[in-house]
Amino acid sequence: MIGKASLGSYAKGLIEYCYYDKHVSAKMRQRLDEQDVRGELVYIQNLGIKMHADGKLDLNYLINQFTNNHMQNTNLKKFMWHQSFTFAPDEKPGNETIAEISTEFAKEFGLEQNQMLVFKHEDSANLHFHIVANRINSNGKNTSKHFHNYARTGEFCRRMEQRLELVQAPEMRINKLPELENVLTDKQHLKLKSSIDHLLNTAASIDELKMKLLSQGYKTYVGRGIAFYNMRKNVKIKGSHLGRSYSLASIEKRLAQTPESRLKSSYSNSKKGRKNRAWGFKCQFLGRMTYFSPK
Hints:
Layout: E1 2-8, H1 11-19, H2 26-31, E2 40-45, H3 59-70, E3 80-86, H4 95-108, E4 116-121, E5 128-134, H5 149-164, H6 178-200, H7 206-215, E6 218-222, E7 226-230, E8 235-238, H8 239-242, H9 248-255, H10 259-279, E9 281-285, E10 288-292
Helix pairs in contact: 1-3, 6-10
């Protein structure tokens, strides 16, 4: 089973895509019979439902419920969560299995009390289904846990495959090769650290640092600690995860230093990072690439 996730702000387009074929025009939809629609609704959560006289779903009724709930928290622009799961070739789990996977997914990713639809598609070689969920609950709170989606989705797929005796998909065996995920994470961390080091040379305060990072695509959250949100990658990184020099206390200490001291600290961090990266090397053994890094 392979899972993919994305966030969006257009409930209408997403729901229509999951129910109808994307190539079917609005006029053609009116002429389709119930049996001709693309998506079969197999699970619904915290939503009302209406049917047209011809047996098809009233999508506008569903869409309006999503958009009306969004009005409680318009600060969250991408309020729609779109998750798909694809089964192995020739694997045909029933609707009960799909519903079980969907409810377990909702529990793990913070969507248990939110609006959610699940559509099954059988129009391709591999049976798959789509989860459409509102990230905002009925109280206007964003409850979704969407950070590190790829890794967490892979772990979730592995557990469901074992629990429901499904075929394991080799494309998602990230737990077998955690180094691959670490390489991607390290690149994001190194880029962020480099940006912080550079901007600390000119920033005079936390607020000024926040503004400068925002111009580079990072939103900064300051509370008991500090965290940075990569708006393009949809990834949140805690300062403490970057290293001791990037905790809130350390950054405040570096801001209080003279410009000359900051440059020296920045050079020291950069030199240390190059030394650590020099330890990593790749080797090929029996046709398989393995990545080694220091513990």
